[in-house]
Write a structure and sequence with these properties.
The chain is α+β, with helices and mostly antiparallel strands. 32% of the residues lie in helices and 34% in strands. It starts with a helix and ends with a strand.
Length: 536
């Protein structure tokens, strides 16, 4: 070992192998390092090893402390401070319990889409851990939250889908494969933008509330004249050269086709493309024979491109205010008839008697003076409901509603009238005024005849008496019919919402229609439930 090797031995670390001459040098260097007066390399190595061994424990303790702080802040309602601490805790030590606390914090904070994704991740993590109870809890929380998620659909019509179009949502690019699909978002304001080469940028701010279903249609982007290369310099050079007296050209390829070169210049400008325009100008310079015509043709063709297209009006989402609304659905429920009087057919075969001044009078029955009495009737019915109207706004629909059905056991309900519905998140509430024709098969309790008002005093104050009916002549049950007037309350839950710019835009609704009406003789109560689709 020479002096230089001995001087460098202090800085060479020890290795556990020994082979060849180089191995021997390393072994010797290791021995020297033990006698070295500078132990710093060994100290640094030990410190690094201790740091690597201790750091996981430190991170775990720090994550545990942050989680506890976040939970305490959640209890106090300080969600803006709690959620970041829990999120940092999960970053330091990703545990299922921390992820559950983070999802609950974001849900309370109103970041529904964020919390929903975290519940999905929690379910997947619990499944890997074999924790079925936590997995079921995460699925239940996510399913409950999904019903309240606001969703936004980004529609890109074919006319707007130019080459190089990029659509972004809150600054993040949106994959073209997801255009037209509803995506869950946190409630609040979101920014949609679109850009393309040579086009003016378009932006729109959309505010979406809990349970909202909105769509944004990206318009055709206007051309940006400032972004295109100016065509004038490429056209002027051939034009000036063509106007000068012809000069004898060298016998090359350009001189053999003077007209073609000038025409190329004109075509280059008309195309408004940077590559083709430059090539056309070069060919024009090589062939000045008929360049004037080509340049003039090019300048004329460039004129339409110089006129800026009108800026399209930004459409936020297919807004459906002022559009036609149609709903149809199947309905079923209970029909309760409290009709105590009516007619069941021809009553002329019956008669009744009452006192007159000359004695007693036996009067024949007809539908004007005699009527039957009935017991209340309750029975199920099945039918449908329909609505036709106009959307005064995204949340208010006004029109006419109809409700009808067949009563099992005999009877019917046909009702309709003006209706108004207003949306509150995922719930529609409405009122409908109804005029109805109701029929029900009910038990006949008797038939009575009316006494003229001027003879009530002679009949002990009675206004009607029972008819003279032979035993067994009255039917056991009969269909009683009446007109009724009243109203209905709508309570509809949006099961699924598919807003779009096509005719299929609408929502699937589960609705209840508590209905109360006053008949000419009695009352009618209905409690139908319907499943329908509202096109809007």
């Amino acid at each position: 070992m020479n002096r230089q090797d001995a001087d460098n031995a202090d800085t060479i670390p020890s290795f556990p192998w020994r082979s060849s001459r180089l191995g021997g040098r390393f072994l010797e260097a290791a021995r020297c390092s033990r006698r070295s007066r500078h132990p710093w390399p060994r100290v640094a190595g030990v410190a690094m090893a201790l740091a690597l061994a201790v750091s996981p424990g430190v991170a775990f303790a720090q994550a545990d402390a942050l989680l506890e702080q976040g939970k305490q802040l959640m209890k106090k309602g300080k969600l803006a401070e709690a959620c970041p601490k829990i999120e940092e805790s999960y970053r330091l030590s990703p545990r299922s319990a921390t992820l559950l606390a983070l999802a609950m914090c974001h849900e309370k904070q109103g970041k529904l889409a964020t919390a929903w994704v975290e519940y999905i991740d929690l379910g997947a993590a619990a499944r890997k851990e074999g924790n079925k109870r936590l997995e079921a809890d995460a699925k239940a929380r996510g399913a409950k939250l999904e019903l309240r998620l606001p969703r936004l659909t980004l529609n890109v019509p074919r006319a707007a889908a130019v080459e190089g179009l990029e659509v972004t949502l809150d600054g993040a690019p949106v994959d073209s494969e997801t255009w037209g699909q509803a995506r869950p978002l946190d409630p609040g304001e979101h920014k949609v933008s679109a850009s393309a080469p040579g086009r003016k940028r378009w932006e729109l701010s959309v505010t979406i509330k809990r349970g909202d279903r909105k769509a944004v249609a990206v318009p055709a982007l206007a051309k940006d004249g400032s972004a295109a290369p100016a065509p004038a310099p490429a056209a002027e050079a051939p034009a000036k050269e063509a106007a000068s007296p012809p000069v004898a050209a060298a016998p090359d390829k350009g001189g053999t086709a003077p007209g073609k070169g000038a025409a190329g210049a004109g075509r280059g400008v008309a195309a408004a493309g940077p590559g083709k325009g430059a090539a056309g100008a070069a060919e024009g310079a090589a062939g000045p024979g008929e360049g004037t015509a080509g340049a003039a043709e090019g300048a004329a063709a460039a004129t339409p491109d110089a006129v800026e297209e009108p800026e399209p009006t930004p459409a936020a989402a297919p807004k459906h205010s002022g559009t036609f609304v149609l709903e149809a659905g199947l309905a079923g429920g209970a029909l309760i008839g409290l009709i105590d009087a009516g007619s069941f057919g021809d009553l002329s075969s019956y008669s009744y008697s009452y006192n007159v001044r000359e004695g007693e009078l036996i009067a024949p029955c007809d539908d004007d003076v005699c009527h039957a009495s009935f017991d209340p009737a309750i029975g199920p019915f099945a039918g449908g409901t329909a609505f036709a109207g106009v959307a005064l706004s995204e949340e208010l629909h006004l029109g006419i509603r109809a409700l009808g059905g067949y009563r099992f056991g005999g009877g019917y309900l046909l009702a309709g009238g003006p209706s108004a519905s207003m949306r509150f998140g995922r719930v529609w509430l409405g009122l409908t005024g109804l005029a109805a024709a109701v029929g029900q098969n009910a038990k006949v309790t008797g038939v009575k005849g009316e006494i003229p008002s001027d003879l009530v005093g002679l009949n002990y104050g009675r206004t009607e008496v029972n008819v003279n009916a032979r035993e067994g002549s009255l039917p056991e049950t009969a269909l009683v019919e009446t007109l009724a007037f009243g109203g209905s309350v709508e309570v509809s839950l949006v099961l699924a919402d598919w807003p779009s710019s096509s005719w299929t835009s609408g929502a699937l609704l589960l609705s209840a229609w508590p209905t109360f009406m006053k008949g000419l003789d009695g009352f009618v109560i209905a409690a139908p439930v319907s499943l329908g689709y509202r096109f809007y």
